[in-house]
């Protein structure tokens, strides 16, 4: 994917899976690439249509949640592009967990009974529901691994004030409840997810993507209880299957480990799983759209011109 240079551009940042362009002081252009990362490592081969899937799910979900809190998005001029308001970010991710899965399960399985200062109840099996959703924040690392952090540490370190934390907590839990409701209508369970927030003036604003397979984990609701009762793996739609494949191939992003070879068939399988989630969560057939770099650039510039007028 090309790197662009836009009129009025004041900054550029290439993240693990997205390229972010600052336009003036108040706008961002976010291009969702087909790169895929796991364990904070960018895997060597792109996944077809992944950027479009993530961008379009995020736009759909931001629209569906805009009554809960304000968000950054203004336009989506191309399948994998969002243009929105530039916010001053909080340096944390608000991770909300409805089930004991992934990192929380690995902590629990090793004997841990607190996560980010939040107590974990005894007697749970992998993928069981928590009595109520838990917020387990992590730091937003510019490089390397994100780290667990507690509410108390966030306030003590000045990352958010007590008042700001109360708003972040309220928004995160309400957004998760809305995400669960949207998923349930499509026969899915929103298991866990993360939200990122920033400020615009004195207002707290939802940023980035939400409820996508890169930021969330979904299970199929049908057969969930039966699989839990039998101790079987849950059928899921998320990036976790990529992490599991990497773990099986002795890669967890640690020093000295090498990313296993990604075959063409495996890359297509990952792409199909992303498209499957899109179609399940949105309830519509995915329409793949491939634009040239020139067409993408032209659409973004036209959108920026509209926002200036």
């Amino acid at each position: 994917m090309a790197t662009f240079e836009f009129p009025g551009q004041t900054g550029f940042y290439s993240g693990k899976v997205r390229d972010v362009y600052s336009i003036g002081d108040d706008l961002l252009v976010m291009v969702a690439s087909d790169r895929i990362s796991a364990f904070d490592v960018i895997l060597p081969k792109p996944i077809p249509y992944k950027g479009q899937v993530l961008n379009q799910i995020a736009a759909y979900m931001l629209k569906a949640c805009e009554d809960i809190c304000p968000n950054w998005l203004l336009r989506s001029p191309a399948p994998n592009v969002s243009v929105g308001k530039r916010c001053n970010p909080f340096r944390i991710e608000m991770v909300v967990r409805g089930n004991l899965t992934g990192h929380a399960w690995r902590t629990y399985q090793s004997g841990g009974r607190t996560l980010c200062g939040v107590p974990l109840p005894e007697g749970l099996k992998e993928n069981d529901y928590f009595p109520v959703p838990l917020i387990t924040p992590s730091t937003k690392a510019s490089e390397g691994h994100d780290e667990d952090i507690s509410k108390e540490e966030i306030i003590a370190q000045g990352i958010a004030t007590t008042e700001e934390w109360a708003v972040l907590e309220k928004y995160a839990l309400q957004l998760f409840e809305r995400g669960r409701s949207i998923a349930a209508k499509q026969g899915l369970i929103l298991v866990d997810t993360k939200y990122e927030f920033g400020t615009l003036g004195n207002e707290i604003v939802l940023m980035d993507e939400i409820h996508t397979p890169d930021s969330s984990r979904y299970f199929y609701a049908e057969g969930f209880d039966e699989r839990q009762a039998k101790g079987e793996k849950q059928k899921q739609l998320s990036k976790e299957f990529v992490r599991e494949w990497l773990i099986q191939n002795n890669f967890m992003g640690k020093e000295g480990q090498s990313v296993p070879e990604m075959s063409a068939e495996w890359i297509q399988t990952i792409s199909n799983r992303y498209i499957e989630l899109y179609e399940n969560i949105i309830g519509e057939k995915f329409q793949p759209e491939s634009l040239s770099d020139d067409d993408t650039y032209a659409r973004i510039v036209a959108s920026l011109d509209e926002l200036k007028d």
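The helical segments are 50-64, 102-109, 151-156, 162-185, 224-230, 240-248, 264-282, 293-308. The radius of gyration is 19 Å.
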